[in-house]
Amino acid sequence: MRILDPHLHMTSRTTDDYEALYAAGVRAVVEPAFWLGQPRTSVGSFVDYFDALIGWERFRAAQFGIRHHATIGLNPKEANDPRCREVLEVIPRYLTKEGVVAVGELGYDAMTPEEDEVFAAQLAMALDADLPALVHTPHRDKLAGTRRTLDVVREAGLTPDRVLVDHLNETTVGLVREAGAWAGFSIYPDTKMDEVRMVAILREYGLDRMIVNSAADWGRSDPLKTWRTGMTMLEAGFTEDDVDRVLWRNPVEFFGANLILEPVPGFVAGQVPAPAEFEGSSVLRGVRA
Question: Among 69, 89, 104, 264, which is 20 to 30 Å from 21 by CA?
Answer without folding.
Answer: 104
